[in-house]
Design a protein that fits this description.
155 residues; mainly alpha; two-stranded antiparallel sheet
Amino acid sequence: MKGNPDRHGMDMVVKVIAHRLKGFIFLFGAYLVMSGYKSPGGGFSGGIVIACVLVLLTLAEGQPMGLNSVGKHVAAVMGSLAALIILLIFAAGMFLPAGIRARFLPAGLDLMHLYDICIAVAVSMLVFVVFTIFSATHIEEKGGKRRMIMRGRGK
């Protein structure tokens, strides 16, 4: 970044293209999640594509904008809650009879769709958290010792 130190992210062309593409990429990720276990795709691949939207916006707009879109702590809580729901779905599938399971789900939504949605949320949020952590740190070596340093905190 040359010139204005307050400017974050990349050039205006990259920002415009990223904002124009984010909806299409998100819809493709949602399609992968909703096509689910019946075809190639599902929660993991859809969650990765949805995480790519957040990573793309962070790269285009800069780290402060990316963290303001979701937030590292909100993403970690959402990913953890989705992982907890996944465990509860497994427990419900193992211990509850099918008739009882069907009463708790909305019409047209079976346990596998709920599972795929939770997988997508967990994967997308936790991949975004890992990306923000790696983008905010770097390794410095002094005197044969390596240290991880957060950017913006000084040395």
